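re: ur question from yesterday

yeah so i grabbed the chain u mentioned. its 410 aa long if i counted rite. heres the sequnce exactly as i have it in my notes:
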Amino acid sequence: MRDIRDRTVRYIRGVRKSATRIDAATPRERDRAVDALRALAILGVVLGHWLVTALVADGGTLRASSPLQHMPWLAPISWIFQTLAVFFLVGGHVATRSLASAQARGTTYGRWLITRLARLFAPVAAVLALWTVASAALLLTGVEFTTVRTLVKLALSPLWFLLVFAALTAATPLLTRVNPLWPLAVVLHVDLVRFGLGGPSWLGWVNVAAGWLVPYTLGAAWTRGELERRRAGWLLLTGGAAATAGLVGWAGYPASMVGVPGAGVSNLDPPTLAAVTFGLAQCGLALLLRGPLRRAMRRSPAWAAVALLNLSAMTIFLWHQTALMATTATGLLAGHLPGLHTRPDDLVWIPARLIWLPVFVAALAVCWGAFRAFEHGGQAGRRGGRGGGSTVVHVHHNSGPTESKAAHRA
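ran it thru and got these C-alpha cells back, copy pasting raw so excuse formatting
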C-alpha cells in the first residue's frame, strides 16, 4: 500500500511540474479564453454525440436511433451539447486575426490558405482510409449493407463541418467586414419561403453557408473589437434565447437543436432560423464567459489540460464517433447490451448509457494513440509546432503552449 501511495504522490508531482512548465511557456499576450472556449466546444460535441447517438441491434443489423426520438422531453440535452456555433465564433475570430498577422508579415493569401487547409485535411485522410478498408472488409465478410451504411454515415458525419469551415476560411478576406445581420437575413428569408410559403425543401441548403456565416462573422467582429463590451454578450444571449423560444413555442420549430431520426424537420440538417438564433445565444454566453475563463486559465493545471486537449482536438473530433461504433460493434460479441444495443425508449437506457461513457473514452484513447501523428504532420513526438496557433479548424493546434514554447501565435 505504501508503495502505491508513493507512486501516486510522485505521479501527481510530475503532473504538477508539467502543468507549471506549460504555463510558463505560454506567451503572456495569449488570450487563453479562446482556447478554453474551443475546448468546451469540442467536449460538447463529443459528449453530445455519445449521449444521443444510439445504434440499436435489430437481429444482425445495426440501425441509428436516438433517445430524443423516443423521449422528446430530453431536448434540453441538445441545448447544452450542440456547441457548433462556438466553433464558428472562435474560428472566425482566429482566422481573421491570423490573416491580418500573415498580411503584416508579407505572407500571401495563397500561402496562408494552403497552410491552414493542409492542417485541416491531413488528419482526414486517415479517417477516410480506415473506413474505406473497414467498409470493404465488413461487406466481404457478409455484414448487411444497412449496418455498414449506418456505421459509415455516423463515422464520417463530422466531415461536413470541416468542409463548411474550409469554405468559410477560404472566403475570410471577403468576410472580415461583413455584418452578421446580412447572413441572418438570408436565413430568415429562406425559412420564410420554405415553411411559410411552401417553397422547395432544397432551398434550405442555402442556410448551410448562411447559417454558419452568422457566428463566423461575429468572430470577425470580435477581432475588430466590436464585441468587447459585456452589453454585446448580454444582447446576443437574451435576444437569441428569446427568439429561439418564440420560434419553438409559436412557430413550430423543433425543440431539439440536433437532428432526430424520423423527424420531419431538423434544426441542424440543414440549419434553420431556430438553430441560428440559438447559436446567437450561445455566442453571447461565450463572450460573457471570456473574463471568468481567463481567470480560471491562470491556474496551471486548468490551463495545461485545455492546452493539451486543444493539441489533440482534431483527432478527438474526427475519431470520437469511430470509438463509439467500435465499442458498439465489439460489444455485439457479448449479446445485446443495455445502453449500447437496446432501444433508447425508456429511463433505464439513460443510466445504462452513462455507464458506457468511460469505455468510449478508453476506445477514443486507443484511436488517439494510433492516429494523433496525422494531426501533427506525422511527427507525433514533436509537440505543437511552429505556427501552431494558426490551425484551420481552431479546435486543435491553436491551443497554444507546449513545453517547447510552440504554437505561440493565435
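noticed a couple things. The longest helix spans residues 109-140. also DSSP finds 17 helices and two strands in the chain.
anyway ttyl
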